[in-house]
Specification:
InterPro entries: Amidohydro-rel, Metal-dep_hydrolase_composite, Metal_Hydrolase, Metallo-dep_Hydrolase. Residues 311-398 form the Amidohydrolase-related domain. Pfam families: Amidohydro_1. With 461 residues, the protein is of the alpha/beta class. Helix 4 packs across helix 5 and helix 8 packs across helix 9 (335-346). It has helices at 2-11, 118-124, 175-185, 192-217, 229-238, 251-264, 281-286, 311-317, 335-346, 350-355, 359-364, 434-458; strands spanning 30-38, 44-53, 56-61, 71-74, 79-82, 84-89, 128-133, 141-144, 146-149, 167-172, 242-248, 269-273, 290-293, 322-324, 382-385, 396-401, 404-408. The strands form three sheets. Strands 1, 2, 3, 4, 5, 15, 16 and 17 form an eight-stranded mixed sheet that branches. The chain has a six-stranded mixed sheet with strand order 8-10-11-12-13-14. A three-stranded mixed sheet has the order 6-7-9. It has a domain at 83-368: Alpha-Beta Barrel (TIM Barrel), CATH 3.20.20. Helix content is 30%, strand content 20%. It is built from twelve helices and 17 strands.
């Protein structure tokens, strides 16, 4: 009976029924007219049109014409901005901590993308078009991440992958790996010193692996080293082919990892959370390191006790490429509000604030040649708001991914959200007999654990 209830509860949810309006055969040619266009990297253009052809931005200007049959959307009084990019997300994946060893570079979250996750659609309703799906932070060196487009309505997981996006990998410093491995399993690392040792040992082994492989390829060794997927990935980090994305909080550990990377020649990396980044902003800028932060979220555990809502602004003012991320299936629906908070506290300009959720995360992920700004030739990932996106009153009206309308508030399918009357009576879904009570309590437990446990364990904050 419980299995039936759970199946009905999770798989029979109306949110999982998809409308034909969201499927892949939708048009990717559009003429958006009469909008205020926030390019982010250039000027904000009044009364401007955008012509989209074959999913890319073909032309930007006034009084544009389009080939016959091209659909037109009148955006008079509205604001068009680049699709929002979430640099740190765990939507569309689950069980993202391979906590069986301190180093697990051989696994990747891209192998388990769930295209049916309704959070993809909900993110679209907040103008988010690209997400960086990350491994959790139980491991010092975790698995590979995946950059996806929010092509909700596609049923093939591979259809969500952003082709050509650089590979990235998750590192983690501090309490999470020391708690899971040292305290939990009595293996290194138990201390913050041990975290550094694990990283140095892993990169040293990778350097030797790469040297042995090169020696064989050059004819200087009779055989290659035994193949190791883990070593292949770590060697590619040293070669600059895999970008490091590192969970971090404390300034001392941030300085430590930058020193390690100096010693091993690793140059392209971004720190995530980085709540004490404001203490070492000049050092981060000197290393050309990125910082992906929360706007005003801290104190949820001891090592995050010290932070400031001025963090993003201080980092920006010091020349650090800074983004604001969600790390939450709820927060990513209003990242534009999070960017506005950084403006409120730190006095950032409109362009600086919106860069935190567009071009800057694109740079951190190595995809800024395709997304993050409104420019001719870039992917037509666009979000249309009925007010300036930094306004608390702004509401997303349409979201395009590769020129395809993936969210349209005016034509939001009935099966994508429920409009409930709080005054109406609700018929109980369970038989509150003794047996039904047990089943109901089981479901309550499932809800409680999924709401509490998923956020902190799977994301690994």
């Amino acid at each position: 009976m419980l299995a039936v209830l759970l199946t009905t509860f999770f798989l029979g949810s109306p949110a999982h029924a998809q409308s034909d309006k969201l499927r892949a055969n939708a048009p990717d040619d559009w003429l958006i007219t009469n909008a205020t266009v926030i390019t982010v990297t250039g000027e904000t253009l009044e009364n401007t049109d955008i012509l989209v052809r074959d999913g890319t931005i073909d032309e930007i200007g006034s009084d544009l014409s389009a080939p016959g049959g091209t659909e037109t959307y009148d955006a008079s009084g509205m604001f068009v901005m680049p699709g929002i990019i979430d640099a740190h997300s765990h939507i569309a994946v689950s069980s993202v901590n391979e906590a069986t060893a301190p180093v697990t570079a051989e696994v990747g979250v891209g192998d388990v993308i769930n295209p049916y996750d309704v959070n993809l659609y909900r993110a679209l309703a907040g103008g988010v078009t690209t997400s960086h799906l990350m491994h959790g932070s139980a491991n010092v060196i975790g698995g590979r991440n995946e950059t996806i487009k929010h092509r909700y309505g596609q049923t093939d997981p591979d259809a969500l992958r952003m082709d050509g996006a650089p590979r990235t990998i998750k590192f983690a410093l501090g309490e999470n790996p020391t708690r899971v491995h040292g305290e939990g399993n009595d293996v290194v690392p138990r201390t913050r010193m041990g975290v550094e040792r694990v990283i140095r040992d892993a990169l040293t082994k990778a350097r030797r692996y790469a040297a042995e492989k090169e020696a064989y390829e050059n004819g200087d060794a009779p055989a290659p080293p035994p193949h190791s997927e883990k070593m292949e990935v770590l060697a590619d980090i040293l070669a600059g082919e895999v970008l490091v994305q590192c969970h971090s909080y404390r300034a001392d550990e941030i300085l430590m990892l930058m020193q390690v990377f100096d010693d091993f020649g690793v140059e392209n990396f971004t720190f995530h959370h980085v709540n004490e980044g404001f203490k070492v902003a000049p050092e981060l800028a000197k290393h050309n390191a990125g910082a992906s932060v929360f706007s005003d979220w801290w104190a949820y555990k001891f090592e995050v006790y010290y932070s400031t809502a001025y963090n993003a602004a201080i980092l920006t003012d010091n020349g650090v490429t800074t983004s604001i991320n969600s790390d939450s299936p709820e927060l990513n629906r209003h990242l534009y509000h999070e960017a506005a908070k950084a403006q409120k506290y730190g006095g950032l300009t409109d362009q600086e604030a919106l860069s935190l959720i567009t071009i800057n995360p694109a740079k951190q992920l190595g995809i800024d040649d395709r997304v993050g700004s409104i420019e001719v030739g870039k992917d037509a990932d666009l979000a249309i708001f009925d007010a300036h996106p930094l306004s608390v009153y702004a509401v997303a009206q349409r979201t395009y991914v590769d020129g395809v309308v993936r969210f349209d508030r005016e034509n939001d399918p009935d099966d994508m959200r429920l409009r409930l009357d709080p005054e109406a009576s609700v018929e109980s879904a369970f038989d509150w007999s003794e047996t039904g009570t047990r089943h109901g309590r089981c479901l309550q437990d499932v809800g409680r654990y999924s709401s509490q446990g998923t956020t902190f364990w799977q994301s690994g904050r």
